[in-house]
């Protein structure tokens, strides 16, 4: 039924001189997200991207595109082919054919009655001879005439219609569509550079990673693994979460350093109440090295203010003190239920709630310090052979490259 998809981007439009870089990145991401479905013709006309495809593939392509950051909405659409060469020469016979096409599309898309609708026209090309309100009115009247019947009770509702049939006239072309599907919004992946996500098996860090992707980051990830205290199943969870993120962000290199020796050393040599604080700092130290190796420019965590004992300003500061890159914490002010809502939306939630042992939960003391003092932390760390421990964790690191093909 459809022969193209109209893709709308939001914020990219505000980027001034760089706008073409952003659009080119988005087009590249769209191509990659759909590459296994075919090689489609993509054109960009100010404010819109058009993807041409055969009707049978349109739905599958839309399902991919609703996950591509940078896309604010999209509509499967039909192009109207009129007999005259120019929009300005649009005549009565063209109009009759347009009416027929609009009615056909409406009938095909609208199945459940009674219902309400509205026709809305955007006339970006002012050479088109009929003004928008008049065109909308006439097409709406035609739909009522042709579609309304005892079994298809239909009313116009200009305020909150259940179906909005849109007609867009731009650059000598007319497009009609009845659906707008929401994309994630934000910026195209890779347009803001690369960052290293500290990815646990929990609910929070995958959501933090997704929010980073949505702000145009591309991601690599690190999961600190502590076998045998943590199981293969816990690791598989993180691999599955990385797959979810990869749907939105393309290839992700998941790095799994060997963290067991570090945790054992901390447990043996540091004051019990400080183990979590010091463990966090060791994670950051390893992350520093990985980010530098992979040319990432920031770290991303799922930390949130006040959610657990280590997530106080003092705790965050003690981590930041050893960080060599900015630590982005997209969830910092969010409530848990807001985070869960997002986790459900991006489909990570069901994986995150699988039972597993986290390397942190095993080593969490009864009464962890909530306001670690930097001097005390540094003093407590003096017993650790920090450099060697970091080196060993990275030397025994496993690397898995995941690409679920989203973009
Ligand atoms: P999450 O739900 O993401 O596990 P959390 O609420 O359990 O977070 P913490 O356990 O304090 O909070 O972890 C805070 C952040 O530290 C996590 O969001 C994640 O970014 C990072 N982190 C914790 N454990 C690990 C791990 N084993 N590997 C990688 N990153 C981790
Ligand atoms: Mg956790």
TrEMBL record:
It is an enzyme of class 2 (transferase). One of its GO terms (cellular component) is cytosol. The keyword ATP-binding applies. It comes from the Bacteria. ATP binds at residues 198-199, 223-224, 280, 302, 311. Residues 59-180 form the THUMP domain. Belongs to the ThiI family. This is Probable tRNA sulfurtransferase.
